[in-house]
Design a protein that fits this description.
The protein is of the alpha/beta class. The strands form 3 sheets. A 7-stranded mixed beta sheet has the order 3-2-1-4-5-9-8, with helices on both faces. It contains 6 helices and 11 strands. The chain has a single domain (about 10-250), classed as Vaccinia Virus protein VP39 (Rossmann fold, 3-Layer(aba) Sandwich), CATH 3.40.50.
């Protein structure tokens, strides 16, 4: 259990959550969903999922959205199934969820690689993960600006996030990513990679190995083959609304 109180720019976090929520189709909720909010905080953003397709006692056999949440900060709630626990070692069984929400949490984990592995463990092979992290160093209105919370342990850019997701078995080749101008949030929507072969240490998977495993966006391949790595200058990434952003224009 963590004795810290809720912290951070709650209004800003809700605004960044709306960026992903705005592209989630209502048809998704025609399915039977079990959502987990990994790092649910006070549950204020978790509540969005609760309201989308609640259980209807008059239609007990219809599909609905079951919502769970886990956080180190304990709380009492009857709105969703809350677990006070560590994302690095969750009490959930394998393949328990078919949708995951991880919003402004990954950057605070002691071991984000283990966190992403554990999230993939508790999600089904056909699940979706919606994830947002803040970028630490960014350009804001034409000036460099550094911003981070006192509890942030990891610092992200688009290449860093894509690399960590890919090396932990998330399919970034078919994923969606967005980093808006003058907005420090990085958004990702990814699925578990098919036929993923586990490794003892994901950090041993360099960019060339990730190309061979076919989990990196195709726009990164030429730069990796030429230089052994990739950065923002080669990124041409799609978002769920059909937009395509050339991040090389910002370098």
């Amino acid at each position: 259990m963590d004795n810290r109180v809720q912290f951070g720019d709650i209004a800003g976090q809700r605004k960044s959550a709306e960026v992903i929520q705005s592209v989630i189709s209502s048809q998704l909720f025609d399915n039977m969903l079990h959502v987990c909010d990994f790092g649910c905080g006070d549950g204020s953003i978790t509540d969005w999922w609760i309201q989308k397709a609640p259980y209807d006692e008059k239609r007990p056999h219809s599909n609905y959205t079951k919502v769970s949440g886990i956080d180190l900060i304990d709380r009492n709630t009857d709105k969703f199934n809350f677990t006070c626990g560590d994302i690095l070692n969750m009490p959930y069984k394998d393949d328990e969820f078919n949708l995951g929400w991880c919003h402004h949490t990954l950057q605070q984990l002691k071991d984000p690689i283990q966190g992403l592995l554990e999230i993939r463990r508790v999600m089904t092979p056909w699940s979706l993960l919606f994830l947002t992290v803040p970028q630490t160093l960014d350009t804001e209105y034409g000036r460099l600006k550094t911003k981070f919370s006192q509890y942030d342990r990891n610092y992200y850019t688009l290449p860093t996030l894509i690399t960590q997701l890919a090396m932990t078995g998330w399919d970034c080749k078919k994923g969606y990513f967005l980093k808006q101008f003058n907005d420090r949030n990085i958004h990702a929507i990814v699925k578990p990679a098919k036929d993923w072969e586990e490794v003892d240490n994901p950090m041993d998977l360099n960019h060339a190995a990730l190309v061979e495993r076919d989990v990196l966006p195709e726009c990164t391949h030429d730069m990796i083959k030429a230089h052994g790595y990739f950065d923002e200058s080669c990124l041409l990434l799609a978002w769920m609304n059909g937009s395509l952003t050339n991040y090389g224009d910002r370098v």
